[in-house]
Design brief:
There is one protein chain. With about 300 residues, the protein is α/β, with parallel strands linked by helices. The protein contains 14 helices and 9 strands. The strands form 2 sheets. The chain has a 6-stranded parallel beta sheet, with helices on both faces. It has a 3-stranded mixed beta sheet with strand order 7-8-9. The radius of gyration is 20 Å and the shape is globular. The model has no long low-confidence stretch (mean pLDDT about 95).
């Protein structure tokens, strides 16, 4: 079993760290929120007092951080991961950030002789708890081979997407599809209602027809057809609207840098910005159907 340092013990990071503990790994974790450290201790992990302490002696260091600047700070600070990691340690960043930052941090790690992967995830909080996440991994094949047994303790689908930064590229593209498709599915259910077509009937037809997609069959935005979807819990978040907006903005930044036309992605970003601006940033992203319906 491995000695693992885990940085970022929030809604995603905590259950990921807990699954590593369940698999028998020794996990030392750090988070700026003291309550998270207590929760890690209760699960059998070790609370570290700093980034450097969490990294000390770790064979693998995993980070799950909320934004680009935190990743840069945690990795590149003089007391950060790259400076503190043991020789030969494998670094895995599962945050969702821009491609350029992922590649810059990877280059800095390699300059110190450390292997690094960008490994963002799909599956949300439920997937983190169930150890059913999808990992999209960028980096060398050798580093991927080292990481795969660890990632398999936290996820079901582990895909090597190519060199450094490609994991982030895959995540950005995937979530642009998700954001656009959730809006399309929401609009279809709203139109069906206006036309006198029952939501369950539309689901029964479309979920087995050409309109089938994950936003329909796994995360249906109307109550009823998919009992596990947030629509049945007043849109309590599995994946917040704020996080969707973050990912859509990343997609648009990447599209601008690459010279790619993404008009649907741009429109989805604008709609989610509107939704979050109405005070709904903490609700599940599928709750955008309420704004489209005209609900306050």
């Amino acid at each position: 079993m491995a000695r693992i340092g885990f940085l970022g013990l929030g809604n995603m990071g905590m259950p990921m760290a807990q699954n590593l503990l369940k698999a028998g790994h020794a996990v030392a974790g750090f988070d700026v929120v003291a309550a998270s450290l207590g929760k890690l201790n209760a699960a059998g992990g070790t609370a570290a007092a700093s980034v450097a302490q969490a990294c000390a002696g770790a064979e693998v260091v995993i980070t799950m951080l909320p934004a680009i600047q935190q990743v840069r700070d945690v990795y590149l600070d003089p007391q950060g991961v790259i400076a503190s990691a043991a020789p030969g340690a494998l670094l895995i960043d599962s945050s969702t950030i821009d491609v350029d930052t992922a590649r810059a941090v990877s280059t800095a790690a390699e300059a110190r002789g450390l292997a690094m992967l960008d490994a963002p995830v799909s599956g949300g909080i439920a997937g983190a708890h169930a150890a059913s996440l999808t990992f999209m991994v960028g980096g060398s094949a050798a580093a991927f081979g080292r990481a795969k047994p660890i990632l398999e303790q936290m996820g079901k689908t582990i895909v090597h997407a190519g060199p450094a930064g490609n994991g982030q590229a895959a995540k950005i593209c995937n979530n642009m599809i998700l954001g656009v498709s959730m809006i399309a599915v929401s609009e279809a259910f709203l139109l069906a209602g206006k036309l006198g077509l029952d939501a369950q009937t539309l689901f029964d037809i479309s979920s087995k027809s050409s309109g089938q997609c994950w936003s329909m069959t796994s995360y249906c935005p109307v109550p009823g057809p998919v009992p596990a979807s947030p629509a049945n819990r007043d849109y309590q978040a599995g994946f917040t609207a704020a996080m969707m907006l973050k990912d859509l903005n990343l997609s648009q930044d990447a599209a601008a840098a690459a010279g790619a036309a993404t008009p649907m992605g741009a429109q989805a970003a604008a709609l989610y910005a509107d939704y979050c601006g109405r005070g709904e940033a903490g609700k599940d992203f599928s709750g955008i159907i309420r704004m489209l319906r005209g609900a306050p």
